[in-house]
Amino acid sequence: MITTFKIFAPSLFFFVAINGFGQTGMDTLLVDFGNEISPFPWNNVTSPSNGSVADLVNDSGFHSGIGIEVFDAFNGINNSGTTAAAPALGIPATASGDSFFGNTVLFGNQIQPTGGVRLINLDTSKSYRIEIFSSRIASDSRQTRYVVSGSSADTLLLQVASNTDSIVATQLKPEADGTISITASPGPENNNSYGFFYLGVMKVIYEAEPSTQTPQLSLLRPNGGEYWQVGKSPLIAWKSQNVGSMTIEYTYDGGQVWQVIDTVFAAQQSYAWQVPPTPSQQCLVRLTADTIAVVSKDFFEIAEDTSTCRIVVIGSSTAAGAGASVPDSAWVNRYWTQVFQNNTRVEVANLAKGGYTTYHLLPTGTPIPPGISITIDEERNISKALSLEPYAVIVNLPSNDAANLFPAADQLTNFAAMQAAADSAGIELYICTTQPRNFSNPAQVAIQKEVRDSILSIYSDHALDFWTPIADSNGFILSQYNSGDGVHLNDAGHRLLAETVLEKGIHQTDCAPIINNTAGVKPEEPKVVVYPNPFGEEVNVRVTLSEPSDLTFNLFDALGNSLGRKSVLHVPADQPKEFRLSFLPKHYQGLLFLKISSEASERSWTQTIKLVRITH
């Protein structure tokens, strides 16, 4: 094997760039390694351990049939590269600023002395030019060795430290199986104490070939029923294969007149459209490429309405996005993206912060019990969430309380305090169950399961089951959803959580002003008074309704076990009605929860109230 070392001098960069992009008779694949997403025509590989793209798109917007995969895991992602690569290189800041990295000395509980990616489905008769760029702002030497192996092999050395304008390149044919592998490791001049090495950007340049696959194009959104407000920027989305450029048009008169929005590469799969001031309920979008044209299946609406329907999420690291490879893959962002595309009035505010427990999110002013050294965060708690005037709040606290060995009863008391605050504000509260975590202490797993069952029992239709889809029978995270630390979820796990919230339909609540209400405000909230509390043998509930309703009273213990139920039909409105609850087990004492549910023709509601029973 002949080994050569190639380092391109700055004077050659423009030549390289010209021969990469737009060279006559050549196709180029552009690959960005890292979690900052680069725009089309870049292909993004975001996972340093098992990332892949099955069918890379070339710089003309066509699918190449060539794939790429990580076959030798890196440690993680570096986000400290240059954001000002030499313009002649044609590398955007999103690509130059991040990279995969490995290390020969323990770092982040890992040693990854090599890291590698493999190109697959290559034409064995063709020669492929491989160009590599990486950058990490640093003053020591981060020289990286790249061994490129196909039918032959070549070794390239690149000084990555504070690199802005250097690349390395080689040209070779694939192995007999149609693959070329690129393996990174520290170069001989690397003097970093951890032996850090990097892979940031790769260009693959090869002889162009006409596509033999049938062009395919389908419109995903808008396809009927969307509510898009003037000035907002929802995504027109489609799915395409082997389509070059295409024209996007829209109509607001049912198809009589079409107006051009833009001409784009089909391979980018979406287009952020600033909705124009043409309010109508007869809007359609059309995509046209060569002989293919697709149109929205039904009408969507463009509205001049400026209202906002806000959902606030409070919680800890999972809600904040921990474990996801990129922010867009975190469950809150996935959820927001999905609901916003259907109804631009919906806005999701995320106040979550890693490490938080139920105590951090208690209503402002709530006394903290002795022995708990946690301060309520008044910028991220339930009180702050309610101050944003949402129509719903979602609480996502997966496991930090159990990590601190806070008992189930204490957690439920804290959830009840949040519920009481939301009830007082007339805002719907949704509680996520605990989530599996790879605790080594069985007591912590037991706490998790107790709280899970209690939340499902107490909050029922206002509970979100974040346990069942991702949990193994031992209370651990199923391996296919584990981000790697036994605590957080990967992209697939976050996707399941987003789907769970979508299925609940919180976003489908109409938060717009009630037009038929002549007063121009919401109906008066029901008034509920419970006394005495604490109580002994029985407790009284006085309810004043704003409209006739059927009422159901449910009592639960601190672990969510049902202690009794009472239903009352046809309770009249506008007059106080008293109900005596005396169906508790004779010797039961301590904390319990009263859940009152109302079913009415115009509006249903639920309140959960914390009670204390004392027996003598």
Task: Please tell me about this protein's structure.
By secondary structure, the chain is α+β, with helices and mostly antiparallel strands. It folds into 4 domains: 10-207, Jelly Rolls; 216-303, Immunoglobulins (Immunoglobulin-like), CATH 2.60.40.10; 309-508, Rossmann fold (3-Layer(aba) Sandwich), CATH 3.40.50.1110; 527-613, Sandwich (Immunoglobulin-like). It has a 6-stranded antiparallel sheet, with no helix packed on it. Strands 17, 19, 20, 22, 23 and 24 form a 6-stranded mixed sheet that branches. It has a 5-stranded mixed sheet with strand order 2-1-15-9-12. β10 and β11 form a beta hairpin.
Quick summary:
This protein has four domains: 198 residues, Jelly Rolls, CATH 2.60.120; 88 residues, Immunoglobulin-like; 200 residues, Rossmann fold, CATH 3.40.50; 87 residues, Immunoglobulins (Immunoglobulin-like, Sandwich), CATH 2.60.40. The strands form eight sheets. Strands 3-4-8-13-10-11 form a six-stranded antiparallel β-sheet, with no helix packed on it. Strands 17, 19, 20, 22, 23 and 24 form a six-stranded mixed β-sheet that branches.
User: CATH topology of the largest domain, which one?
Assistant: Rossmann fold
Over all CA atoms, what is the radius of gyration? 29 Å
Number of strands: 36
CATH class of the largest domain: Alpha Beta
CATH superfamily label of the largest domain: SGNH hydrolase
Strand content: 25-35%
The unreliable regions are: 1-22, 512-523
CATH architecture of the largest domain: 3-Layer(aba) Sandwich
Rounded mean pLDDT is: 89
Structural class from helices and strands? alpha+beta
Number of helices: 9
Give the terminus-to-terminus CA distance.
90 Å
